[in-house]
Fold each of these.
Amino acid sequence: MSRTFISRRTMLKGGLGLSLSAALPLSPLLAQISEPNTALVAKPARVALAGEPHPETVVWSYNGQVPGPEIRIRQGDRLTFTVTNRLGEVTTVHSHGIRMPHAMDGVPHVTQKPIAPGETFTYDFDVPDAGTYWYHPHTNSAEQIERGLAGPLIIEEREAIEVDRDMTWVLDDWRLSADAAVAGGFGNAMDAGMAGRLGNTVTINGKVPETFEVRSGERIRLRLINTANARIFGLDFGTLRPRIIAYDGQPVPPHEPQSGLVILGPAMRKDIIIDMVGEPDQSVPIIDRFYPSQAYRLINVVYLDKPPLRTRPLTSSIHLPANTMPEPDIERAERHDVEFGGGMMGGMSGGMMDGGMMGRMMNGGKMWTINGVAFDGPAMAPLLTLALGRSHIMTLRNKTAWYHPIHLHGHSFRVIARNGKTTRYREWQDTVLIPPRESVDIAFVADNPGDWMFHCHIAEHLASGMMGIVRVT
Ligand code: C2O
Ligand code: CU
């Protein structure tokens, strides 16, 4: 088992036989911006993604770095940032998961005019909730996010829990060619109709990771953010025994992962607490086992050979204070049914029968549907219209053979049931991973007026139809 896909798996034809066993110290520190006024410049850059001896990779970056700078402010503060476009095509920035006014949501032609090359746009809004979020473009996402446009957005609690280190790991997955360049073929039919664009190189904070050094006795809060187009992570922390304290930025009663794995579909976040109770010099691998036949070592956690920071782990509470979402009234909620259809291999249903899969693929590349309709542009009629201020329950049914991480803009929702069975934590999320042929019930108060995007966050799926508009009015 090796630490990257490249060195283990047969890659794309002509793909790089990178041997990423070269020792690469992970630099876990992200450049950070915490002034109230932040300037992001979207532009091409060269970065040492794969590390020695591989050449640098040309990426699309915010401020020359991948991931973009970590924006970090406090709950209740106002976030103001400008975005200047130095790319060769239009862009926008969506602050994923933040409940903000519609005009600031960064969706082209729905909430704003896209930012043309050479132009600057100012995003300016209050942040109501603490948590781990991220920002990314909402234009040509399958290419722009894959090329590197994504960054962490951290909203700190007003009253912090006690930790020794608060760290962010941006997990990304790249498909690189033999010269370590980002491979082309964005949104091709095979990727679009199946799992999305899976890569051959996994990075943490823009580097192929080697080791993460910790001190015996310390307590670390790790904010995990999956910015990959399509890869789902299922992290096995072995003896490190993480406790999950937040899903998608929203507090949850602290608990160990139910399946033993910390699972992150595209766009999802999890905050975990690890009390480092190992001995100096010990080393613990973190294994990604989401795709069991393709398990690989993500990184080694190495205890420094130093006296422990403390002899007993901290016992202070790791329970985060609640955020500000209104509580849905389950008894009186309006109910809505949503079906996801399409895709290859047994996924042809509903709208996809119309003209046959190949016909649809050639006919504008639409392969996926929501309630039988493939997204065809922002002028489309809304998929659902929800009464403002009311509680709603949506039953989301995945009728396909593939996983879909489904995201609703402008709101967080409680995941109240899976396959009809009540969930243990009724967790708040903004992106919910639905396994093939399964269903999920979500509940929330539609308290934010506007036309909100509702889509699968596998970039190749949203680009080929799995998107719609939920109107709150
Ligand atoms: Cu991460 Cu429509 O967004
Ligand atoms: Cu999908």
Amino acid sequence: MIKKIDHIAIAVQNLESALETFRNILGCAPEAVRIEEVASEKVRVAFITVGESKIELLEPLSDESQIAKFLAKNGDGMHHIALETDDIDNETKRLVSLNINPLGLPKEGAGGKKIVFLHPKETNRVLFEFAQKKH
Ligand code: ZN
């Protein structure tokens, strides 16, 4: 089952300067921000808690990162919408049965969550991430 929008992710060239902008927009306290590196994706990530959801800022750590490629093509901007599910394997099966295909198998993402992306060609060009909290 889909529980909520877990986060909305924005690709940025410079995490520090984007973080300042987003903290100003949201008027949030420093403790609302958590920064981590996701080596497997070659990105540095800042999560800003906004009520029940988060905004995720994604900065590439290498030109090989998918985020670097996205930025080269589009510049800074909206990258994906993440939905929280309590059963990623079941949701993936449900989507495949509807001809909506995941990009690969579920893998470990930021915060140790199990994540999978859906092909934007089949989702009105919105990149969706499904995320399941680690138990
Ligand atoms: Zn994400």
Amino acid sequence: MSRPVVTLASIKRLSEPERPKIKASSSCASASDPRIADHPCYSEEAHHYFARMHVAVAPACNIQCNYCNRKFDCANESRPGVVSEKLTVEEGLQKVLAVAAKVPQMSVVGIAGPGDSLAGASAPKTFALFKAVRAALPDVKLCLSTNGLALAEHVPQLQELGIDHITVTLNAVDAEVGEKIYPWIFWQGRRLTGREAAQTLLERQLLGIEKAVQAGMLVKINSVLIPGINDDHLPLVHKAVQERGVFLHNIMPLISNPEHGTVFGLAGQPAPTNAQLESVQEACGIDAKLMRHCRQCRADAVGMLGEDRGQEFTSDKLPAQAQINHEARHLYRSVVAEERADRKAAALRADAALALAAHSPKRRVAVCTKGGGRINEHFGHAREFRLYDVDATGLSFVGVRRADNYCQGGWGEDDNMEAILKALEGCEAVLVSKIGRCPKDELAKAGIDAVDGYALSYIEEGLSNWYAGLALPARISA
Ligand code: CLF
Ligand code: SF4
């Protein structure tokens, strides 16, 4: 399908402060780094193709965070929700093998709780599981998430196991801020509280981060944005971790629903708005690698980021012996390699389209995708939207906004539309594979153009062509 390209040279580009742009073609650059090429969290590009699984073998925790209720998943790496099952090492391995047999996209096995992966008796279980997975599936990457209290002393062991992806949740670098987040920690056989607890935790976290970086590991920092507590402080955290050579910083919004029974939830501590999150990310991310595609996974999540296939792999459904088709796994990677090359070529075409639209203002647009880097999701089925800022200099990935899907099998849910409109706040258009007349009209009333003219295009190419051809928007078919 050929789409007319219109030059918008006559429109003066707004001179607002903005984060560095990526050329559409550069979104594939990460694919060249073998350590992150297939890691869905460390590479935004990879998460279109690869899946992760978490194995819930670490139930204990050595600290208390005010955003956590132990009856729920670790909020460091999860959205609150009871972990379906806590597993032994043997059960964990059985589950990993079952997932590997059925999900060729699975490239990473992570341990992210539901407590802390290195706390007390959890640490040996974590190491035993990693060792077993390493032996059974050498092509899979191992990934550890921790609150960092016990990281420093475990770095040699992690190194020995060849683990080079470590995530540390670091919410503060100042104990005055930290004590508002952590009421107590358990350290060297003692329970510490107040400022002393926070001071000890923060020191141990920074030491652990330094040691892990020195050991050559790719350290990612997760920070929970807690409005009024660490929002102004996170740029300092960012600076501190940048100075220590961390690979990536992920700022995630606090989840504080009262029904989760956390201290913050019960106290009415608000979660940040999308605008607050963006503003802190902007304040931190002038020239840094910030992660913007985190989905705050459960500690037993399975599948592509944004999907959870955990219920397919509960203990009662696991085969006694999974038959892993290594050939199929290998084949999947070959297909991805071809797709990546194809997408790279599309991104170059996208750059060319944007070049025609010089001197044009920034526009925010959402995309519906179910993977593969393409605009391939029906609006009614979308449970999340990817937001981009586009102008003639390139695309900026803003982040992922979630809302329950509109289509409920033959009818549209109005309440969900309300949440969707909130998620799409600030967007001029949403690019979809298909959309019905009713939701299209609802979106139009809110000033959002629903466009299905770029269905199945690569995201970069669809966005660039939409931007460059704005004077002649694609027709919608209901
Ligand atoms: Fe898991 Fe974390 Fe490893 Fe990823 S999740 S241990 S680095 S494999 Fe990823 Fe999930 Fe965000 Fe975590 S999207 S919550 S950052
Ligand atoms: Fe909860 Fe994780 Fe904090 Fe431990 S580290 S209290 S499990 S959020």
Amino acid sequence: MSAHVPVMTAEALEFLQPERGGVFVDCTVGLGGHSRALLDRGASRVIGIDRDLDALAHARVTLAPWGAKAELVHSDYRAIDSVLDGLDIALVDGALADLGVSSMQFDEPGRGFSFQRDEPLDMRMDRSSGETAAQLIATAGEQELADTIYAYGEERFSRRIARRIVEARREAPIDTTLKLATIVRRAVPTRGYQRIDPATRTFQALRIWVNRELEGLDAFLGAMAKRLRAGARLVVITFHSLEDRIVKHTLRALEKSGDAAVKILTKKPLVPGESEIALNPRARSAKLRAAEKLA
Ligand code: SAH
């Protein structure tokens, strides 16, 4: 397994102030890197949520030294209310959401997130439910495919790619990463030097679609804000502009709302320093926003 280095840990800890103790929710515990840092710095208890059972198995090992102070829950963070209700926790002292995929999901063989290897086109973070990328691609209409690749991949050749997918699937199922990558690469006109593989944007779009990554993100932030004690902080780290836009607008709306009102602490999002990016390529596109619950 490749090591997953948590992103912007110093900045997250500065906002969350775990040294004051209290209960923290790590909405995307992943391999447990941020949770470990919270516990190391004095959090009394961390509730770690993830919808990926493999991630939770890793987090369990990472967080074993803290015993019952670390509680792991297999859930979608959009079910935050039922997770906290189930643990009899009304309000928490801080919350962190580090969105997107982990380097483990990306690098571990057999998950289908990456076109660096040929493997089944799955892409589900939670392999215990939902449709795989291969299943969605087999059944979606051409227009829906084009719209998805355009919206979630910001891919200007989305229509051509969708058309090629529909043509190709008449011949044979598109059920591996390499089959899809090949179709996309052939559909996209190549002119000179390519900075990124032409399949990158389509793979991002499918991953967001399969996992419904943007749906309900706003409702989750609102629900999370309601569960913060006065003075407690929410830290959100995003990895692409679509997500960051939702976080920015939702926090602004919460700032103006009477109910669950927060104060935004990051006028502009924080980004990692150059030294962090040099050490950890996953940090490259990270943006961190934080807000504090008002009394
Ligand atoms: N902060 C973690 C890494 C998180 S990577 C660490 O330090 O190790 C993002 C994680 O969020 C992944 O494990 C992914 O499975 C999880 N995730 C993404 N969307 C989710 C959702 N809606 N509900 C719960 N977990 C989610």
